[in-house]
C-alpha cells in the first residue's frame, strides 16, 4: 500500500485557522515565544500553547529551550514552502483598517519567506538575475550559469560552500502575492543574508516585512538594474 494516511493528519493541523495564523507569522524564519505568537495571531496564550504542542508533535514546528523559556520556529524549509504555496491559492484577506492596509502593502513589497526574499523585491531580483544571464529557469529550480558563478563570487557569496548544505540549492518558490516564482533554497538564503550584511535591506520587529534602505535602493539599481519603490 503506497497511500500515507498521515498526510491527512498534517493537512488537518495546517488547515485550522489559529494554526495557519501562527505558521504565517513563523514564515519570517525567526523563533518566537508562545506569548508573542498568540498576540500576533490574535488568540489567547493558552490556545497558542495548545496548538504549538500539536504542531511540534507533528514535526511541523520545532522548539528551542533557553532556560525556562521556549521559542518556536518552523521545522524546515519544506514546511515553509508548503505554507507559501497554500497562501498563493488562498483568497486575499479582507482589509478592515488603515493599519492592516499598511501592513499588507509592506508584505507585498518585500518580506521573508522563511529564509529567503519574497514579495515584489524577491520576484524582481529573480527576474533580474534571469535577464542578466546569471541564472536559468528550469522546471522546478534555477541553474547558475558560468557568468552567474562569477557574479555571485563578486557579491562574496561562496557557491561551493552553500552547495554542500543538506538542502535544495536553488528551487523555485511560488510567491503568494506576485503569483510568480522567486529564488529559494540555499542560494536564495545566501542572497538574503548578503543583502542584510550590505545593509541594503533590514528585518523589522514583529513582522516578516523587509525594509529596503536608501543605500539598498541605490545598490539594487547599480547591481541588479531595477528600481523598487514603496508603491
Task: Summarize the entry for a quick read.
This protein is α+β, with helices and mostly antiparallel strands and 231 residues long. Helices cover 50% and strands 16% of the residues. The mean pLDDT is 90.
Provide the succession of SSEs: HHHHEEHHEEHEEHHEEHEEH
Average residue pLDDT: 90
Total strand count, please? Answer: 10
**C-alpha-based Rg, rounded:** 18 Å
Low-confidence stretches: none
In whole angstroms, how far apart are the ends? 52 Å
The percent of residues in helical segments reads 40-55%
Secondary-structure-derived class: alpha+beta
Largest sheet: 2 strands, antiparallel
Which range does the strand content fall in? 15-25%
Strand line-up in the sheet with most strands:
1-2
Task: Give the CA-based shape.
Answer: globular
- List the total number of helices: 11
Q: In words, what does this structure look like?
A:
The chain is of the alpha+beta class. It has helices spanning 6-15, 17-26, 34-41, 45-57, 77-88, 98-109, 119-131, 146-154, 159-163, 185-197, 214-224; strands spanning 61-66, 69-74, 111-113, 116-118, 135-137, 142-144, 172-174, 181-183, 201-203, 210-212. The chain has a two-stranded antiparallel ribbon with strand order 1-2. Strands 3-4 form a two-stranded antiparallel sheet. Strands 5-6 form a two-stranded antiparallel ribbon. Helix 2 (17-26) crosses helix 3 and helix 3 (34-41) crosses helix 4 (45-57). The model has no long low-confidence stretch (mean pLDDT 90).
Amino acid at each position: 500500500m503506497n497511500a500515507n494516511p498521515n498526510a491527512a493528519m498534517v493537512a488537518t493541523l495546517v488547515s485550522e485557522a489559529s494554526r495557519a495564523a501562527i505558521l504565517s507569522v513563523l514564515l519570517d524564519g525567526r523563533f518566537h515565544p508562545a506569548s508573542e505568537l498568540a498576540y500576533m495571531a490574535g488568540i489567547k496564550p493558552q490556545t497558542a500553547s495548545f496548538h504549538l504542542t500539536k504542531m511540534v508533535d507533528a514535526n511541523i514546528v520545532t522548539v528551542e529551550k533557553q532556560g525556562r523559556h521556549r521559542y518556536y520556529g518552523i521545522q524546515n524549509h519544506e514546511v515553509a514552502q508548503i505554507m507559501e504555496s497554500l497562501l498563493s491559492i488562498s483568497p486575499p484577506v479582507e482589509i478592515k483598517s488603515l493599519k492592516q492596509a499598511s501592513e499588507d502593502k509592506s508584505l507585498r513589497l518585500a518580506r521573508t519567506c522563511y529564509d529567503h526574499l519574497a514579495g515584489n523585491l524577491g520576484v524582481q531580483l529573480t527576474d533580474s538575475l534571469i535577464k542578466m544571464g546569471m541564472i536559468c529557469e528550469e522546471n522546478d529550480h534555477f541553474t547558475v550559469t558560468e557568468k552567474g558563478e562569477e557574479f555571485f563570487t563578486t557579491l562574496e557569496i561562496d557557491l561551493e560552500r552553500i552547495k554542500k548544505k543538506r538542502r535544495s540549492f536553488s528551487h523555485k518558490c511560488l510567491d503568494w502575492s506576485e503569483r510568480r516564482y522567486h529564488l529559494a533554497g540555499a542560494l536564495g538564503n545566501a542572497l538574503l543574508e548578503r543583502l542584510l550584511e550590505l545593509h541594503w535591506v533590514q528585518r523589522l520587529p514583529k513582522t516578516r516585512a523587509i525594509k529596503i534602505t536608501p543605500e539598498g535602493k541605490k545598490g539594487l539599481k547599480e547591481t541588479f538594474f531595477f528600481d523598487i519603490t514603496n508603491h
